[in-house]
Amino acid sequence: xxxxxxxxxxxxxxxxxxxxxxxxxxxxxxxxxxxxxxxxxxxxxxxxxxxxxxxxxxxxxxxxxxxxxxxxxxxxxxxxxxxxxxxxxxxxxxxxxxxxxxxxxxxxxxxxxxxxxxxxxxxxxxxxxxxxxxxxxxxxxxxxxxxxxxxxxxxxxxxxxxxxxxxxxxxxxxxxxxxxxxxxxxxxxxxxxxxxxxxxxxxxxxxxxxxxxxxxxxxxxxxxxxxxxxxxxxxxxxxxxxxxxxxxxxxxxxxxxxxxxxxxxxxxxxxxxxxxxxxxxxxxxxxxxxxxxxxxxxxxxxxxxxxxxxxxxxxxxxxxxxxxxxxxxxxxxxxxxxxxxxxxxxxxxxxxxxxxxxxxxxxxxxxxxxxxxxxxxxxxxxxxx
Length: 385
Ligand SMILES: [Zn+2]
Known about the structure:
The protein has helices at 79-87, 93-100, 104-125, 180-193, 200-213, 231-245, 271-283, 298-315, 327-330, 340-343, 350-353, 357-363; strands at residues 36-43, 50-56, 62-64, 135-143, 150-158, 164-171, 222-226, 253-257. The protein is of the alpha/beta class. It folds into 2 domains: 1-69, no CATH class; 79-372, no CATH class. The radius of gyration is 22 Å and the shape is globular. The chain starts with 35 loop residues before the first strand and ends in a 22-residue tail after the last helix. The site of zinc ion has 8 residues, from loops.
């Protein structure tokens, strides 16, 4: 657990833990014999605050205490934790923008940065986590751009801790009741943009479960619980096949299914996931029913999902009447409840996180919105590394 009092730029004793240059061999913390020197002071024009500067004596990159702050390079410096907080409490993008008197594009950018930070935060804080409980998983159904583009956010939660271990996404084809006009529109859109991969749920769930299984000791069985979606047994077979292909040992898998018609009460084995769905829809304005604040881009929804996961696991009380215990404390990865200032206390570097392939895509913003066709915009991460 990191110190919860100072950020690197307010800590008078702060010394750089590693070189911030990702191409330097001393970028990884703990590489012995790293040498750095003091390199003067930099005074910020806007508020005349001064920050100590340093220089890596290997690659000669210069940097300052600010380089290690999560709001590095931001003009609206104190907004990051505030936006994460208010976005987790049901406000839409434009509502947040009006509240803080900034442009809505600023809020969108802050949520994207917050999402990246939260992805790294989850990775960092769960580095040594071993799962010792049954895992419930399910797809949270929502949409991007218009109701013609539904997708699942696949979630895996611990049955006992309610900790959200993993999330992935799967674009879906619009199903259910449609008017003849909607059916025609769907056909037109599919002729123009192609149909979503019919295996998307299977593939998204495979990625989800592979990541969960990496955290279950191989001498213990993995108990996985889900509803009766036909793609789930196929996903589990695919997980086993893929592990065999790379000769990786995985736990014996016990898959239990629970009818989605079963009462969604506390004794339902899927309670943790049902509760997460409920909270997700309740807390984030983009997932409300019949809202105008729905996500226009799947990538933006994934960023918010990363924020939601950190909020659910570390910030929010596990139960509203249960004292200050969080899901992260029950899962054994935290000793105390955190607030958003704790989460954003210091900058996290993607080069340290050991991101899986799908997490690299999320970090780099490479999740595309089919409806945009060739008009995709990928935000260049100039200062991400
Ligand atoms: Zn260096």
